[in-house]
Design brief:
One of its GO terms (molecular function) is metalloaminopeptidase activity. The protein is α+β, with helices and mostly antiparallel strands and 607 residues long. Helices cover 35% and strands 20% of the residues. The strands form eight sheets. It has a six-stranded mixed sheet. Strands 12-11-10-8-13-14 form a six-stranded mixed sheet. α5 crosses α12 and α14 crosses α15.
């Protein structure tokens, strides 16, 4: 029998007392901040505080006599171990017979009971789903209360770091120019005001950056836009003299981050309001909805106009991105050499290998931060797409098999992302077959030509075809957009064949940046992913229309030790040789060490 976890049980009892005091019968705690960021700061780890489970995805539901935590298959074992003795029941999402949270609430809540949650950390889609699923019951809602405030006495502070200004020269377009385009779209949508909640969109629009979300150079913020005002809500302590002077100069009106709800509740509405439900938390959306109804105007749910503007990079952004990717590729090339030279000769783990690469990147001029925590996975660990080694839990890298490293950084001038799977010892013929097909898929997509108007769904099969012919697939998208000195995962475009109902398909346009990352994952054996970042470019226009394609931004060698030519057609061999020719031509001028340069010449030889 598991030892009782008195710490968690005590916290839950205090939470239940706070629930009773506030008239809440069931209380929900998800994993999110106020803007649905990819990474949640310690301040927002309420679910972890009340159940002990610290995985990146999970939702805790508590009543007076029940506590249940829902998570996905990545975390079943971890959650079970971390919640032993807490009295919290694990609900294994998508397993047969396991109800969703909404189904559980419908089955267990009584008419007249109150469902509570902090509406600032619940997305509008999730909040509306609860309302819809529970519509057959007389359930009441309390969504404006963060009960952790009453219980978590030593709660970490809200992230708060100095903001900084990017020059117009670095951004290619001024805030004034970008704002004019946003206002033009507002007119098209018939709106006189626009509330913007998406952090990277706000940063892109204002040419400001921050450090409030791990690996994302953004500040916690909201923006309220009309035709004669631009109000930016940020924490006062983050506003440096430089930022304040810039805002005064360009006409950005600064208000405190915590004032946004009062502002929305009181601001005069003289026309329709634009708000993208996908990017707005439930409390903010419901408050806006009530206000627009009171004012007799419409709340127009349209996509944030900044989204596509941000995705199509301007000429300055593209120039800087190309330069940054080349420098980043040089670092990765040197790292691959270091791994191959030292494996089996010095102590090396997944974690220390990642530390080595992170340190090499940090030495580059203009380095800001990693764009995501480096994934370093050896042998069978690489078969787990979300694997993360830690200092205390990392496999030793030996002179056998392969090491997968997925990494990137944000620099002044761009954000990078790249994956290479490196041969460090003997590998099987099956691994070579899978590796060769993965490389062929990456190069097939990168060299594809397609009609203007195609989306990522149209081109995804280029990357999968060699694997599909072997009866193999990978269970993730092939590509995602990437920000400019912003988030490494950026929409609206992506490359994937499977689209769920309601998902938006964005047309690929010249100037977009997207990853190209097919893979093979064989549980208990090996994992392979080869990822280049490519730029959407115009190829030709003729009587049939406008044709587009991709240009490589990543120039790092493919491991020829894992290539088996018998699985390749002459055209495949030509693509690999051409790519390696470009790698050597572009990377070698930046390598001073003759041993590394000699190795690179051999690593990029024609086969």
């Amino acid at each position: 029998m598991a030892k009782e976890n008195t710490v968690i049980k005590d916290r839950l009892e205090k939470l239940r007392a706070a629930m009773a005091k506030n008239g809440i019968d069931y209380y929900i705690m998800p994993t999110s901040d106020y803007h649905n960021s990819e990474y949640s700061a310690d301040f927002f780890k309420v679910r972890e505080y009340f159940c002990g489970f610290d995985g990146s995805n999970g939702t805790l539901v508590v009543s007076q006599n029940f506590a249940g935590m829902w998570t996905d298959g990545r975390y079943f074992i971890q959650a079970e171990n971390q919640m032993k003795g807490t009295g919290v029941e694990l609900f294994m999402m998508l397993n047969p017979g396991v109800p969703t949270i909404a189904e559980f609430l419908f089955d267990n809540m009584k008419d007249g009971e109150t469902l509570g949650f902090d509406g600032k950390v619940i997305s509008t889609s999730v909040g509306e789903n609860y309302e819809k699923k529970l519509s057959g019951k007389a359930v009441k809602y309390k969504i404006d209360k963060d009960l952790a405030e009453d219980v978590w006495t030593d709660r970490p502070a809200l992230p708060c770091h100095d903001m900084y200004v990017l020059s117009d020269e670095l951004c290619g377009r001024s805030f004034k120019e970008k704002l004019a385009n946003v206002r033009s779209k507002m007119r098209e949508f018939g709106a006189t005001a626009h509330l913007l909640s998406k952090l990277d969109d706000i940063m892109w629009l204002t040419n400001l950056r921050g450090s409030d979300v791990e690996c994302n150079p953004v500040a916690l913020a909201y923006a309220y836009i009309t035709f004669d005002r631009f109000v930016l809500f940020v924490q006062e302590k983050e506003v440096t003299d430089e930022v304040r002077a810039y805002c005064d100069k360009v006409g950005i009106e600064l208000k405190d981050y915590h004032e946004v709800m009062n502002f929305i509740s009181e601001v005069k509405l003289d026309g329709n309001v634009l708000c993208d439900k996908r990017n707005t938390n439930f409390l903010t959306y419901k408050t806006l909805l009530d206000r627009t109804k009171e004012a007799g105007v419409l709340l127009k749910n349209e996509k944030d106009p900044t989204e596509i503007m941000k995705a199509v990079k301007n000429d300055t952004e593209l120039k800087n991105i190309r330069e940054v990717y080349l420098k980043d590729s040089v670092v990765l090339t040197k790292f691959i050499y270091w791994v191959k030279k030292n494996v089996g000769k010095i102590p090396m783990t997944e974690y220390t290998a990642a530390e080595k690469l992170d340190g090499m990147r940090a030495e580059l001029p203009g380095f800001i931060e990693l764009s995501f925590p480096t994934i370093s996975a050896y042998k069978s660990n690489a078969a787990m797409a979300h694997y993360e080694a830690t200092k205390d839990n990392a496999a030793e890298v030996k002179a056998d098999g392969m090491l997968l490293v997925d990494s990137g950084a944000t620099y002044m001038g761009g954000t990078t992302d790249v994956t290479r799977t490196i041969v460090v010892g003997e590998i099987s013929d099956e691994i070579k077959k899978h590796y060769t097909a993965t490389v062929m898929g990456m190069l097939n997509l990168a060299s594809s030509k397609f009609m203007e108007g195609c989306t990522g769904r149209n081109v995804d099969t280029f990357a999968r075809m060699a694997l599909w012919e072997m009866g193999i697939d990978y269970n993730h998208g092939t590509g995602h957009g990437i920000g400019y000195m912003l988030n490494v995962h950026e929409g609206p475009h992506s490359i994937r064949w499977r689209f769920n109902e309601g998902m938006h398909e964005a047309v690929l346009q010249p100037g977009m940046i997207v990853s190209d990352e097919p893979g093979v994952y064989i549980e208990g054996s090996h994992g392979i992913r080869i990822e280049n970042i490519v730029e959407v470019v115009e190829r030709e226009t003729n009587e049939y229309g406008r044709f587009l394609g991709f240009d490589h931004l990543t120039y790092a060698p493919i491991d020829l030790e894992a290539i088996d030519k018998k699985y390749m057609q002459p055209k495949d061999i030509e693509k690999l040789n051409n790519y390696h020719k470009m790698v050597y031509e572009k990377v070698s001028p930046f390598i001073d060490d003759e041993d590394v340069k000699k190795w690179l010449k051999e690593a990029t030889r024609a086969i």
